[in-house]
Amino acid sequence: MEKIFSKLMTIIFAASLALFIMLGVFVIVLGPKRTESAIKALFKLSNYEEGYQRIYPVASKEILPPDSGNEPSVLGAEYLREVRDISSVPPFIVPSSGTIPVSAFLYTGPLSEGKHEGIDIWTSVNGSGIDGGNKGNPVYAACSGEVTYIWEANGDVSIRCDTLDSIYTEVIPSLEIKTLYGHMADQFSNEVYINVALGQRVEQGDLIGFQGNRCYWSLQNRVVHLHFSVYDVSVQPQKPLDPEPYIGVSCTTLNQDFVAGVK
Ligand SMILES: [Zn+2]
Fold it and tell me: Rounded CA gap, 118 and 120, in Å?
């Protein structure tokens, strides 16, 4: 009798131990509080470091989450990888289709330094619009936001963009942006191609007008095109920025193709 009891106790003890170990493995490997060091320790215990390297490649060690102290957390690493994946998609869309066939129409820097603080996307390389007319390709809101300025004399519209997601902090200079779209009118017939009103809320991709040839200050500028600028409005005076990281297309390359984006 005593022997049977002792055997039973041994079986119960072994079963409990196995259950406890399984539970531990479950919590460490699959539980929410797993850390890289805990998993590494587990693999070391089971003499299977190669497996650890396969699941958590060495590269994950350089990715430290914010406020992590010394220990790289696997959850933090996953979070940062996710942030990088999302932020590799530019926050804005390309506002209009066309090309930049003349170098003076590329982005060069602030107007205050005598430079061109935006890009001019031409509907066609000969400077004319659709079917040789004065109206060009459609213009879409590059960002969601509010129409804060309209100046018909130059066919201008400004959109104050919604504050961009902080996941973009590392890849763009500012999260507080205003976009400017210019020349959306006909210099000769005075037709205005602007489709939005002051104070209107627009969503990214909404049609806001058409490329035109009206320019208030320069005759040379009267080709059918869209002037597009991106400004950092978190500083005073507002600072023109290279639109490239915002739209994902080079704004300093001659004959660059621009294809209006759809989100
Ligand atoms: Zn321009």
Answer: 7
Rounded CA-CA distance 231/180 in Å is 8
Tell me the CA–centroid distance for residue 234 and ligand 1, in Å: 23
Q: For residue 206, what is the DSSP state?
A: -
Higher pLDDT, 69 or 144: 144
Three-state DSSP at 147 gives: strand
Please, which residues bridge with residue 228 across strands? Answer: 119, 181
Instruction: Dihedral sign for Cα 199, 205, 210, 215, please.
Output: positive
| CA of 130 relative to ligand 1 center, distance in Å | 20
Identify the architecture of domain 98-258 in CATH: Distorted Sandwich (2.70)
How many angstroms is it from 71 CA to the middle of ligand 1?
50
Stretch 205-211: mean pLDDT = 98
Report CA(248)–ligand 1 centroid distance (Å). Answer: 19
Please spell the DSSP secondary structure of 7-63, one letter per residue.
HHHHHHHHHHHHHHHHHHHIIIIISTT--HHHHHHHHHHTT-HHHHHHHS-GGGGG-
User: Ligand 1: distance of its center to the CA of 135 in Å?
Assistant: 17
Q: What pTM was computed for the model?
A: 0.69
| pLDDT value at 189 more than 80 | yes
Q: Where in the chain are the domains?
A: 2-87, 98-258
| Ligand 1 centre distance from Cα of residue 157 (Å) | 13
43 Cα: distance to centroid of ligand 1 (angstroms): 60
Between the CA of 60 and the centroid of ligand 1 the distance, in Å, is 44
Instruction: Quote the distance between the C-alpha of residue 34 and its chain's center.
Output: 30
HSE-up of 159 (CA within 13 Å, CB side)? Answer: 32
Q: In the 3-class helix/strand/coil scheme, how is 79-125 assigned residue by residue?
A: HHHHHHHHHCCCCCCCCCCEECCCHHHCCCCCHHHCCCCCEEEECCC
